[in-house]
Amino acid sequence: MIRDPELLDQLIDTISRFVRERLIPNEARLADEDAVPTELLVEMKEIGLFGLSIPEEFGGLGLTMEEEALVAMELGKTSPAFRSVFGTNNGIGAQGILIDGTPEQKARYVPRLATGELLSAFCLTEPDSGSDAASLRTTAVRDGDHYVLNGTKRFITNGPEADVFTVMARTDPSNKGAGGITAFIVEGDTPGLKRGPADKKMGQKGAHTCDIIFEDCRVPAANIIGGREGQGFKTAMKVLDRGRLHISAVCVGVAERLVEESLNYAIERKQFGVPLAEHQLVQAMLADSKTEAYAGRSMVLDAARRKDTGENVSTLASCCKLFCAEMVGRVADRAVQVHGGAGYIAEYAVERFYRDVRLFRIYEGTTQIQQLVIARNMVREVS
Ligand SMILES: Cc1cc2nc3c(=O)[nH]c(=O)nc-3n(C[C@H](O)[C@H](O)[C@H](O)COP(=O)(O)OP(=O)(O)OC[C@H]3O[C@@H](n4cnc5c(N)ncnc54)[C@H](O)[C@@H]3O)c2cc1C
């Protein structure tokens, strides 16, 4: 749902200019330094990027899902690691508190997440629990007004820097499934919370992950999201539902950028006396990528609009994540092919994007997990 087309146009225009003039020229620097330059972080905060999907009452922009998808598509036109920093605040870092938090929890954390004063992270995955998230082993044992957390969380985006963590831990050891899990807000400076060294990743340099280790980490009972034990897995799944549409929109943006890079290169470079773009086999690659990016755009916007009307889009969000993550992988592969040898050389953006987009098929639910969710929901609907 688009509430005010004029305001949205202005916002998209601002973001598009920021992407073109500030982020794209700094993509190589981001990768080389493995860090978002500080001055760009400041500018991101000024534009309001840390609070895109956070309601206006908490100081965010309060975008609807359709508006957020359109913005995410613009942001996808540059290195995904830029988006990862503030995308986590808008998404998996803050949404748990926003969706299921108590009024006090929202008031304490969300306004500072919206401005970027606090950086957040989402701790679900563990060394022995990834796709099978409900089997997680981190424990939280009640001790007076506190819970004592023990366990290790793995691959946590923003882990090295985050000020506040949403942590899923098992409060009921007799329940080995989803019902035994509770979500906690854990502040980064809580004694007993330790950060492992930053992971060395294949791509998305500038976005950092690490282990988050809890060793007798005492967390106030008041920090249970929503105040009730046993609701944490549901909270985590609601958070991921919204995240899937956001990530899908980012995939569409990246695919559109790669189509543009491929087309420009194919027009400029000549072989056999004519531009590459005049060779029909190259045209086929360009056309396939254009078509797939358009299909992704259409389905994400459709699902986002439905979500805005209150429809349950759990299946459609998984359809979008499945298609768009795979689609951008194919588009990146063709982009390298259109560039020939240059596509394999780091000087060209497509080499970096090829590595960056590989992650989309893995995190926030792998492709196989999306397939399982879609099929399970289909069967459930019939029976
Ligand atoms: C850069 C990065 C950032 C991340 N950020 C976060 C974060 O911020 N917070 C967080 O909690 N997690 C994060 N993750 C973790 C991510 O969500 C998991 O890696 C992902 O869910 C897959 O889990 P896994 O790595 O344990 O793989 P596994 O679950 O071991 O899966 C391995 C393979 O088996 C397949 N598979 C597993 N089960 C089935 C099944 N039942 N049927 C068919 N196939 C199956 C998978 O699809 C996959 O192909 C991040 C990961 C990375 C790499």
TrEMBL record:
Transmembrane segments: none annotated. This is Acyl-CoA dehydrogenase. Residues 121-217 form the Acyl-CoA oxidase/dehydrogenase middle domain. The keyword Flavoprotein applies. Keywords: FAD, Flavoprotein, Oxidoreductase. It comes from Billgrantia bachuensis. Its cofactor is FAD. Residues 9-117 form the Acyl-CoA dehydrogenase/oxidase N-terminal domain. The keyword Flavoprotein applies. It holds the Pfam family Acyl-CoA_dh_M.
